[in-house]
Amino acid sequence: MPILLFLFSLFSFNAMADEEPEGDEINVPGLIDLGFLGTITGDIEVGFLFLEGNTDARGWRISSEMVHDTELFRNRYNIQGRLQKNQYIDEVTGETGRQTTVKRYAFSGQSNYKFLSGTQSFFGRGAYAYDMFGAFKQQGSLATGYANRVYERQANYLDLETGPGFAFRESAAGNSTKGLIWFLAVNYEQELYKGSRFRQTFEGNVSLDGENTMYSSRSSLTSQINGRLAMRLSFTAHFNSRPEDKLETLDTETSASLVYAF
Predict the structure, then answer these.
(1) How many whole angstroms separate alpha carbon 217 and alpha carbon 60?
(2) Pairing of strands 250-261, 96-115
(3) Residues 77-135: tens digit of each pLDDT
(4) SS3 94
(5) Which residues does residue 103 pair with via DSSP β-bridges, in sequence order?
């Protein structure tokens, strides 16, 4: 599934790179001007889950991304979190309670130093993820390498990144591994029409020593509601090549969220 989403992003780029969105003006997301310190843009995404009936559950997810752009550097920060609790009935006492069924969070930070031209850069990146019930409870990585913004038109762009790195992992059973990886990423964003944008991200930590290889892909469609408020539909897939026991290699999530852009 991650590979299919990656191919879909490239297909979308080829199909729409030469097209302009409808209308006389392109809807460029607002930027906060910091003067000689550059510009900042970003958003906060919040989604809620309410289930009643045969299954009673409550949950929420939050995601925030900020991009700080200067003449020489482009810095990107991302934070994600999700918590879900399901209601259950104790078979012995008959009492009703709630137990946590999903608890995960992740954050990453990356800095790109621009050189030669504004499209090519040298990047350094760090990421950490915790998932209480996932195939791997903890995963962290450091990577560095070369990045190229191969396409840019207004706020539309396609970034390709690749380079070596180091990763550590703690499995659900508590076993830890670490080793060298090769990091690769694709970040693509395109305005479909005024007030609506498609975004595809793809990241891979390919193990160079035969340990676990991880891919992560997210496809999202954001439509403006009013001013800085928007609605976002997204599909996320996480793939781990060697989970322990009988855990699945692929985790997916489909969500609808409210987004506030700043």
Answers:
(1) 20
(2) unpaired
(3) 999 999 999 988 887 887 888 889 889 999 999 999 998 677 899 999 999 999 998 87
(4) coil
(5) 83
Tell me how far CA of residue 54 lies from CA of 60, 95, 159, 246, 253, in angstroms.
Answer: 20, 16, 45, 27, 21
Q: How far apart are CA 97 and CA 20, in angstroms?
A: 54
SS3 129: strand
Backbone angles phi, psi at 36, to 5 degrees: -70, -10
Residue-wise DSSP of 149-213: EEEEETTEEEEEEEEEEEEEEEETTS-EEEEEEEEEEEEEEEEEETTEEEEEEEEEEEESSSS--
- pLDDT tens-place string over residues 38-77: 889 999 999 988 777 666 888 999 999 999 999 899 999 9
Question: pLDDT digits over 125-171, tens only?
Answer: 999 999 998 878 899 999 999 999 999 988 899 999 999 999 999 98
The structure's pTM equals 0.81
In angstroms, the CA 166 to CA 189 distance is 28
